[in-house]
Amino acid sequence: MSRLSDNQKISLGIRIKNIRQNLQLDQAEFGRMVTPAASASNVSRWERGLNVPSKERLQSIAKLGSVTTEFMLNGSKLSLEEINQFSDSISDKKILNQQEKQKVNEINLTMQSSMDRAIGIETAFAKDAFKSSYFDKLPSEQRIFLSNILIYLKNYSNSKVDKRFLGDLSSFISGINLLMKQDITKEEFYDYENLLNESIKEYF
């Protein structure tokens, strides 16, 4: 297995974590299912991108996730258009063949990983953004609202909140980014704020 960059290790770790969570296993249980077996601390280091499983263990993890080793290492190469075309092609099928099942699993894991990466990036951005003196200029009610959002971001990983809410939250933080870069006006930012307010009402 060729040497992976730090970014590739992080991406691989996210895919491993998603497979484990989809199997509803803790790290110790997941480690016992891998061949050869691994400790919970090993699984934790894989998921955080600190270490990489051996070739044999990676093949075992890919099998557990019903995906290919190539996908584990490099992610999906499908474009959004290709994903849509594939979805259309199987929409009326009651039984999928092994290759189709594998592709479905890879697409689902890609979506999960993308969400995890996006939330992680937006969380890091939010932590920096809230230190910015820019927000001192906002009205007090908006600063309070943004502070509450930061609390949600810090705690989202331990929550059972619907991923649609996390998508709305990610969109809102993107809106903050646009506002800070002055790509949108404060009036346009209210659209992001209102969308998230509606989502909060629905899920909380």
Describe it.
The chain is an all-alpha fold. Helix 9 (163-180) packs antiparallel against helix 10. The termini are far apart. The mean pLDDT is 78. The longest helix is centred in the middle third of the chain and has 32 residues, at 98-129. The radius of gyration is 20 Å and the shape is globular. 70% of the residues lie in helices and 0% in strands. It is built from ten helices and no strands. It has helices spanning 6-22, 27-33, 40-47, 55-64, 69-74, 80-90, 98-129, 140-155, 163-180, 186-203.
Short summary:
This protein is mainly alpha-helical.
Alpha carbon gyration radius: 20 Å
Alpha-beta classification = mainly alpha
Q: Can you summarize the main beta sheet?
A: none
Helix and strand pattern = HHHHHHHHHH
DSSP summary: helix tally: 10
Average of pLDDT? 78
Cα distance spanning the termini: 46 Å
Overall 3D shape = globular
Poorly predicted residue ranges: none
* Helical percentage: over 70%
- What proportion of the residues form beta strands (DSSP E)? under 5%
Count of strand segments: 0
